[in-house]
Amino acid sequence: MLPRGVYLITDAALCRGTGLLASVRAGLAGGVRSVQYRDKGNDAARRLDEARSLKALCDEAGACFLINDDPALAAACGAAGVHVGREDGDPAELRRTYGSKLMIGVSCYDSLELAHAAVASGADYVAFGSAYASPTKPGAVRAPLSLYREASVALPVPVVAIGGITAANGRPLVEAGCQALAVISAVIDSPSPTAAAAGIAALFVDLP
User: Measured on CA atoms in the order 136, 129, 22, 29, is the torsion positive or negative?
Assistant: First the structure.
């Protein structure tokens, strides 16, 4: 199951006191189709426990579950895949190590060249961003709308947009061919993650 629609990336610090699992559950109720567990902490036991719990929620909702930058954790908890950035791991090495057991997503920032290389190395999908100014990563490089249009035509894998995306500004990215919109604060930091996710999900079904 490749990422489609609303792609939620977790950030436990933004969960407004409701807790990580409750926030993700609420997002799934609103139409989140993919969840990426992102936690850079050093408590391996806690991370494995959270990953397993999140996977169970995703399984129940029929959503895709991925792990950020930790293929061993992805394999241990039975996640569908792993997402890596420029300094997180070589997609080709991951493919050699895990074969078809893990889906591989790769951040390509603002570079179509990086995306072509990632696909050649075995990436199952690529992500570009920041699409807009991001409250989570204010210093992130910006990817122009034209890149999403070009990538959606040139690449044989799904294109994911990330960075500052909300229900109010996501439509141009969907119209440009993005198969998924990755969000963090727009859902996790919302007073109602369910309503926020539903608003973004509607972008994929409410096109003229």
Answer: positive
